[in-house]
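Database export, one record per block. Field names are fixed; values are copied verbatim from the stored entry.
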Amino acid sequence: MNGKISIFVASGALLMGVFFLPVLGSEANRLAHLDEPNNPWQFDQHSAKLITPQWIGEDGVEAVAVLAIDDMSGDGQNFRNYLSPIIERLKKIDGRGPVSITCNRPEPDHPNMQWFFEQGVSLETHTMTHPCPLLQRYDFRRARANYHGCVDLLAMIPNNRSVGFRFPCMDGQNTPSPRAYAEILNGVSDLGNFMTSST
C-alpha cells in the first residue's frame, strides 16, 4: 500500500513539475534581450509597447503619419519643386512642413538645404550609391564605406542633425540585415559621425 502511495505522490509531483516548469522557464532569463541590444528581431508580441503618445511626448497626440521621400542627390531642386505644395499645405495645418528626405549625395552648401530646414524638413541618411542590398557581393568594406560616407556627407550640411538611416530597397526587397545593424549601423564613421535610428 505504501508503495502505491509513493508512486501516486511521485506521479503527482512529476505532473505538477511538467505544468509549472514552462512558466518558470519563461521567467528565468527575462532580461536576456539586454545582452544583445542591437538585435532588431529580439522583440515579439509580449515585448513592451512604445505607443504614439510616448513616442511623440505631446498631450493629445494619438496617431502619427510620417511623410518621407527617398534618394535625394545634388542640389535637391526637383525635391523642392515636388514638395513645396505639400509643405505649404502642412504649414496651414501645423505651422511647419515636417517631411523627411533620405539622401544619397546632396550638395552640402547648396541653399536648398537651408530652405528645407526652414520649412521643418529633415535630411536623413540613405547611402552614397544606393546598393540593393547594402551587403551585396558580400563586400563588407564597401558597404561600410557607402553607409558611413553618406553619414559624413550629411554631417557636412550646416545646421543638419540627421538621426535616421533607411536601407536602400528595404520595402520591395526586404534588404535590412542583422549584420548591417550589428556591424555597420552600430558603428561610428572615421570622422566620428553616427546615426541613432533606422527607419
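Remark 1: The CA atoms of residues 60 and 155 lie 34 Å apart.
Remark 2: Residues 2-30 form one domain.
End of record.
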